[in-house]
Amino acid sequence: MTERLSRNRASIAHRLRYAARNPDRIAPYARRLARDTWLRLRARDHVAYYRAVMRSDAARSPYGAVGTADHDHWLAIGRLQFDYLLSHGLKPSHRMLEIGCGNLRAGHLFIGHLEPGHYYGVDISPDILFAAQETVTRNGLQDRLPHLTPVRDLRLAFLPEGHFDVIHAHSVFSHSPPEVIDECLAHVDRLLAPDGFFDFTFNRTTGREHHVLREDFYYRTESLTALAEKHGLTARLMDDWEKNPHKQSKLRVTRPAPNGG
Ligand SMILES: C[S@@+](CC[C@H](N)C(=O)[O-])C[C@H]1O[C@@H](n2cnc3c(N)ncnc32)[C@H](O)[C@@H]1O
Known about the structure:
By secondary structure, the chain is α/β, with parallel strands linked by helices. The chain has one domain (2-260): Vaccinia Virus protein VP39 (Rossmann fold). The chain contains 11 helices and 9 strands. Strands 1, 2, 3, 4, 5, 6, 7, 8 and 9 form a 9-stranded mixed beta sheet that branches. α8 (126-138) links the parallel β2 and β3. The longest helix is centred in the first third of the chain and has 17 residues, at 26-42. Bound molecules: S-adenosylmethionine. S-adenosylmethionine binds next to α4 and β2. GO terms for molecular function: methyltransferase activity.
């Protein structure tokens, strides 16, 4: 665990060791490197770049685009997210915003659980939102009237103040540079209901912060906690999430208790 957390996947030494251990992955990695370089050169910023990555990935497979190998794995990762929030008190009456909802891996379970109209999913990728609509149809969730909205940024200015009891972002900041996370943390407070919270997962490192192909970003917990503090929010690492087999860690962001209590 400790070795995994301190590993720098961007270092030449790591890449050479990885290639020696996984020779079959060299060609796919080279193809990804070429594609990502091309997409990055044509994009004006990170969001435009990542939207293009999602377009390319979703055209091949919406399951693969959200990081799962097949439908069973997709279901399992969705269930993991859902069971966790259920065990933390998610009620049908709650209003939920899912940032980077993808093709509703967990979203289809949230939508089924929440009262009609109480689920709001946003994503930068219109292509994955088309796949999300298919998930709604396949699961017979039309009557739940989920909102599925494309966004250009995470200022989320079009959403109402104090509206959401739970804001959730799974495997989104693991693909986001610091300025995207900063923007989200600067605006999320406005959207939270008085006792609301914002949970997000991230790739945790105890070593040097780094990224791979500007697709996967690795952060120290302290950096993200400090970023939340900069915006007047409190962030804590969710230890109970660490017990499950998922590779990412989870932070919960709330408003500080009054009088620091
Ligand atoms: C790995 S997928 C995870 C999707 C979903 N959260 C899940 O668990 O299945 C990451 C998703 O986040 C979206 N995304 C990435 N950066 C984003 C951003 N800055 N704002 C909104 N969505 C974003 C991607 O388009 C993609 O659908």
